[in-house]
Amino acid sequence: MTFEGVVTNGQIILHEAPPLTEGTRVRVEIQDQPPRRAASPLGEMLLKHAGKAVALPEDAADQHDRDLYGTAKR
Questions:
Q1: What residues pair up with 51 in beta bridges, in sequence order?
Q2: Helix, strand, coil proportions of the chain in percent (round to 5)?
Q3: How far is CA 67 from its chain centroid?
Q4: Helix ranges (DSSP H) in the chain
Q5: What is the pLDDT of residues 20-46, one digit of tens each?
Q6: Is the CB of residue 42 less than 8 Å from the CB of residue 48?
Q7: What is the pTM of this model?
Q8: What residue ranges do the domains of the chain occupy?
Q9: DSSP state of 38
């Protein structure tokens, strides 16, 4: 027997309910996978630097205008 379906939120959803009894052992064979979207060249370049900043103040994310442009602290 062959049944078709898709994976949704980590669960296999069959297109039609199979006439199988509870506890029946099955084997899942992957037919095709959607193509992975390639990261843009800019995204790849930026990811090389992710998480490498050191010695930043703890509130740097909240106060980036202060640090970049010298505005008053919020």
A1: none
A2: 20, 10, 70
A3: 31
A4: 41-47, 64-69
A5: 899 999 888 888 777 777 778 888 888
A6: no
A7: 0.38
A8: 1-31
A9: P
